[in-house]
Structures are given as C-alpha cells and as structure tokens.
Amino acid sequence: MTPQAASAGDKPRKYARGMTESTAPDLDPEDRKIVTLARSARARNGVPEGAAVRDETGRTYVAGTVSLDSLKLSALRTAVAMAVASGANSLEAAAVVTAAAEVPAEDLAAVRDLGGPATPVHVAAPDGVVRVTVSAG
To answer: Range of 84's domain?
Structure first.
C-alpha cells in the first residue's frame, strides 16, 4: 500500500482505496502529512473523525474517535492523550478530519494544554481539503 511515485506537477499521489494525498498549497509537507494521516485513520476505522498530532521531536500520533459505553473521546483528544502517554513534552501541530463545521473548545483545550496557545490546528473536510487553520489558544 505504498503511494505511487509522483514528480513535481503531477496529480496528488494515489493511496489504498482511492485516497489521495491531502493538498493545501499553504501547508508545509509535515503539516500535509498529519492531515493525510488523520484522513487515513478516519477512513480505515470508519469513525466520524480522524486526527493526528506532531510532537516536538517530529513523532506523530494518529487516532480516531473513541465511542465506547464507558468512554467517549474525540479523535483529537485521543491523539493528544496518545502523545502524552508516549512522553511528548509539546506539540508542533495538530490536524483533524471531520464533517463538523468547527473544532469543539474541549479539543482545542487539549491541544493548548500540551502545545501552547499558538499551536496550529488544521481542520480538514473528509476529502482532505483543509478548510481552516486555527490556533489552539
């Protein structure tokens, strides 16, 4: 399931199940990567949201929505919890793929708690198009 090679000017790379690499002209490659990972988590797990965060060392943590009888967590809060549980000290960026119009305040608070108020949160539609980037603060 590796992407097909693409050169400059080619169409977005194709992934398994017809997914394409997320595109946004103003995102750097590392931010595009977390959007793509978030989108993949959402599709793979058949959940309402997928999220990914990148810590201060460049490691990424990817999660989907958790919906158990005893535990309910958004994808973004789950990804932040995974980063904390793995020893991350800070976040550089976060991404969430969702059909929702905005990111809930609780999700932004989780990103802010670990990454600080200036941490960018890229909000993408299910097709991977980034609709808006907001700060966690």
So the answer is: 18-135
